[in-house]
Amino acid sequence: MKKDPTNSHDGACVAVVGAQWGDEGKGKVVDLLASHFQWIARYQGGHNAGHTVIAEGRKLILQLIPCGILAPGARAVIGNGVVVDPEALTREMSLLEAAGVPLAGRLFISQRAHVILPYHRMIELAAENAPGRVKIGTTSRGIGPCYEDKMGRRGLRIVDLYDRDLLRAHIENAVREKNAIAAALYGGAPLDAGRMFETYVEYSELIRPHIADACALLNQAADAGESILLEGAQGTLLDIDHGTYPFVTSSSTTAGGACIGTGLAPTRLTAALGVTKAYATRVGGGPFPSELNDAAAEHLRQRGREFGSVTGRPRRVGWLDLPLLRYAVEINGVSSLIVTKLDILDGLDRVPVCVGYRLDGKPCDHIPYTVAEFERIEPVYETLPGWQTSTEGLTRYADLPSAARNYLDFVAGWLGVEIGMISTGPERNQTIMVPESRLSSLLPRPAAVTV
Ligand code: GDP
Ligand code: IMO
Ligand code: MG
Q1: pLDDT class for 170, splitting at 50, 70, 90?
Q2: Would the pTM count as exceeding 0.90?
Q3: Ligand 2: which of 23, 24, 234 to mutate, most ligand atoms within 8 Å of CB?
Q4: Which residues contact 223 (CB under 8 A, 6 or more apart)?
């Protein structure tokens, strides 16, 4: 691969992260930006993610393979920080091939990524329903137990699938242990190691052409001045360290995770883009200070079609929470914010925004550390005027109603960060690139394919 001397943005390495609890519209944003980049990499999570892309009237929900695969010429990487369920992966590969998206020579899977096995799902389902356990409301994909085995140094990596003796021994030992745990603690039906081995051998052959040293590939690409987009999954408040623990996912969803989960050094990152809805949603249990449970909630849920992309569960909805968003801006070093679903707020008389909390009646100047504290805080709202004209599908900033511009200015001013892009509908072209924003100047020009 040759360095392109005409590209003034050589070496852009940009992370796109969720700034809330996931489902902010990262899929749409990455799909839109992907044509500017030569490589798109996922760095954490697994098929708990559901990234919706709607282009030319066609809807695709990608769970494991980066949305960038849809940009002709871009190469897609599943990094070492991702946990891969081969069943979900091969299903998604077939779905993309059936949709006419070529994968040969374009999809690369890190040999160091960890593998989800059926016992991870079994243990998770049993544990979530066990009496006395905190019910996180996970996606039941085995994500947490797989990361537990990784951190416990007893996981199985993609590369291990190809050492058949190791694979057989690993599965036999793990199944014996997990069956014993399930029987003792949860009373589940035992899994069969022999059948599991055969199935995973079959999967390993299906994905073999895509296995690569993803870390080396990405670093070579960066050395050659090629542009890389890092596609986050979930959101900052679901981060294992920085999120609303224990109601989080089991990986580092934040910009720091983009380095760990790909092997690209922190000094390579040139920008972090934070994606937030114009309001807030959350799927599953856990703190949500600005949550609504009234007619406004139902209005936003129906209008925003707020039902989980993966599980179909109704999403909890609420107003935008600026203290939490400021926290996300800080943790990720967000250089530009991208606001999605502005159109869903159309037609409201007033739009409240959470600008602080009160704890036990007194102002609270920090993000609560515990769930108990989260339960006791009360949001403080500032109410801004709504707008009655439609923003749906607008593509020019100047065409936004003045109250919508006022809302966005308020958010950007409060956070002290620019809003670089505004999404006004689910389609690729229903987007406003804010003129003269840093975001518009940092994007590499649409990638020419240099091989
Ligand atoms: P992700 O997980 O962050 O990629 O987000 P999801 O795909 O799970 O959920 C976002 C949903 O909002 C999807 O159904 C998108 O098609 C939709 N969406 C994204 N941006 C917009 C927008 O600006 N307006 C509207 N109306 N829908 C949007
Ligand atoms: P995308 O990438 C929204 C939530 C689950 C649960 C918690 C832990 O589409 O934004 P897990 O299965 O990860 O152990 O569940 O995290 N969750 C998500 N919520 N969007 C996601 O992904 C999510 N992935 C996990 O609902 O509360
Ligand atoms: Mg999603």
Answers
A1: very high
A2: yes
A3: 234
A4: none
